[in-house]
Amino acid sequence: MESATFISLGLYFLAMLAIGLYSFKQANTDVEGYMLGGRNLSPKVTALSAGASDMSGWMLMGLPGAMYLTGLASAWIAIGLVIGAYFNYILVAPRLRVYTEVANNAITIPDYFENRFNDKSHVLRIVSSIVIVLFFTLYTSSGVVAGGKLFETSFGLNYELGLYITAGVVVAYTLFGGFMAVSITDFVQGCIMFIALVLVPVVVLIDLDGWQGVTNSLTSLDGQYLDMFVSASSGQVISTIAIISMLSWGFGYFGQPHIIVRFMAIRSVSDIKTARRIGITWMIVAITGALATGLLGLAYVTEHGLQMDDPETIFIYLSQLLFHPLIGGFLLAAILAAIMSTISSQLLVTSSSLTSDFYQAFFRRDASQHELIIVGRISVVIVALVAILLAYDRNSSILSLVSNAWAGFGAAFGPLILFSLFWKRMTLVSAISGMLVGAVTVLLWIYLPFTINGQSLSAWLYEIVPGFILSSLTIVVLSLMSKQTDSAIITTFEKVQARLNGSASGSGNAS
Hints:
Elements: H1 3-26, H2 31-36, H3 43-54, H4 57-70, H5 75-102, H6 109-116, H7 123-155, H8 159-207, H9 211-219, E1 230-231, E2 236-237, H10 240-247, H11 257-265, H12 272-303, H13 314-322, H14 325-363, H15 369-390, H16 398-422, H17 428-447, E3 451-452, E4 455-456, H18 457-460, H19 464-481, H20 487-504
Function: Catalyzes the sodium-dependent uptake of extracellular L-proline.
Membrane topology: Multi-pass membrane protein
Subcellular location: Cell inner membrane; Cell membrane
């Protein structure tokens, strides 16, 4: 690898660390400032931060790899994600922004759950925190795996060393800058990802003499790579169940703490509409570029008679082959941006949960703001180390790790978030039960040794579908069986509705 590539990556690392230092100097000295940025994010930072933390290394590695193997059939995942992200902005963003502030200024998702249901027993906070720590540690490890593969493939470095470099830089700026550093770096990283995911497919398309050259290369292969209803890897027509599975990725958005926490931090409800427009436009372009990278990459490899050992590294392969080392370094920085933006968000949310929902809630209720920030920083390091240990299995599939964690959050928190925001009759018992049913269903669906038509349950139907459905049914049934008797909950719900109505009519906002 030429020195120009190292210069590009070195500048990127320095920029991320500089943002962390700047945020450290500018940040508030209280917990809300460290973990929620003082609820003062602008629409553009909110949008790109949410997008970058959502679209981790799997978008530049996992999704292109899936497209490389199965062809246009993988596009169903992208369609489901875009639809889910749009409705997340419509349904969750405005209500969560207001509710978390009205409900005793909650700064974490478990904190919101406890305040929303006036849970004096703290059971809901404990269970939701356990779910966050469990699935986010797994989720974070997927990003670290992507970083290890990047450094091994691009630089010939030891895979394990790549894990430590990736996690080390993220921990450095997250540790000191907190939520504001994570959000600003996400914004910069989102811009880098956007440029890269436009640049690479365009250059490959030009090299192949346009779309006609792409179709000629792909039709020469055994497999229908341009048919959305046929999996090119197996040659089988995609079943309705399989399409539902891929589209159902969109359900996951409603329960992803590292994404919806951005809605809690935006400076006002009136800014959400602008954030939505920016965020969805960014997402459509970026995810289309990721799909195109996999499909056009396959055409390029076929046309030039090349060999790909790991389809998930097609973006890396193309960036090294087609670009000057200086630009190639920038493109590799785009992968690091995708990886780091998600890892940092997940580390911060997990750290926030360990600090506020365990340490402060059960061990040191009177802890000072300075002490809580110190505990939060220690938690960042601990979670990162555990994620690195899990990532030592270099054969882990990035997309598989992400899909399991995504389903876990989507099924455990998705229905709970939606019903808690829209249904005042929802009860504490139904909230706890629905979350547990969703999480347990996902785990059982993944690990039970049963098959349908020769496929594991998870391969036959994405685990988020049964998890989301059973969690929703549990919440509805148990809420209807009991009556909401806590007048404080009803009062808070009505205050939220009044604030939202005021924002909609232009008479105020949630600032």
